[in-house]
What does this fold into?
Amino acid sequence: MADELIERAKAVLTPALRIHTDIVVRKAYGIYVEDRDGRRYMDFTSGLATTNIGHNHPRVVDAIKTQAESLVHSGCIFYYEPLTVLPEMLKKVTPPGIDMFFFSNSGAEAVEGALKLARFHSEKQGIVAFTSCFHGRTFGAMSLTTSSIRYRRHYQPFVPSIYHSPYPYCYRCFFDQKPDTCRMDCFAYLKRLFKHLIHPDEIACIIMEPVLGEGGYVVPPAEFLKNLRALCDTWGILLILDEVQAGMGRTGKWFASEHFGVVPDIMTIAKGIASGMPLSAVAASKEIMAKWSPGAHGTTFGGNPIGCAAAIATLSVIEEEGLLENAARVGRHTLERLKTMQEKYPCIGDVRGLGLMLGIEFVKQGREPFTEELKKIMDYCLDKGLILVECGVDKNVIRLAPPLIVTEEQIERGLDILGRAIAAVCG
It folds into this structure.
């Protein structure tokens, strides 16, 4: 029956839509997904870092049911309580000064809104982004995205006045530097843009993922982000931090920017905000938002009552169940175990991450990407009941992003499967 359903789906769904596994789900709960045959899998993807408090958390399910009984849709025609309560809750956990919000449906929409806000507020056109970053697949967001050429192929010309600078990806340094010889050449390159391509007083914003997501789960040096903040302050450029994947507790803090002591001017929030309901937000200060005049941006479905209710429940669970602390603690334990595995298996070139946003980069001799072998490792894990997903420009990085409720015991079980897979494939 599962095979028949998959064939029916393939007959009507565009091949552009990639489904990562052939699992046909009957139900999901916590860190587990159960298929139609009753087989249970551990989900270490969290639905692409979205079900941060686990699948079908009872409080989220109850909030959805309760809200659906009173109001399903507004279309910006009237006010309702969740639309006020949610931003009041968010302003308590966002970085200082980030206290006003515009709700939309997806991470890409939030990025589009952030770019519009930056241009509208600054009355400038230039935008600087970073190579390897992923910001979405709508046209403005795709014009920023460089985590893979396949997202850009056949779509040019892109939105104009967008410039790219190398992301500080230390393991694969654009300038072939090593940590002990690093001179922050990546930051120097960024400043050279101002001499050769666009003057800084024409730049509306610089947008960056504080932890690289689709591009490889890379943690940049704190020095780079601090320098970037100072550069933006010097020239009056708005700093946008895309927290779509790294936010909402994924890194062991509410937002990844907190690890670096950097406060953005504008943030984008999505994925983990509403436990799988389509909801995202552009977040900024009242001062910046005040210049966005009525009608300058809008939405029909953004801030949907059910999505907002799910988000309120999600934020409450993260705080009341201590999930930030759990993500930080279990994440540290996992990273230590991964480093031990790295010492044992030469095919693991690098392990990195914050909290439960951890990347394992697989390589051949000379740091060549180990893409085909990675697929075999993931297939082995799937066969043993562990769902993983890859990332990186060469798809040679496993991203470990289990729900923030995961326990050390559950992590150990998952890592045991992964270890056996690596041993079987890499020897």
Remarks:
- The radius of gyration is 21 Å.
- The chain has two domains: 2-56+322-426, 60-320.
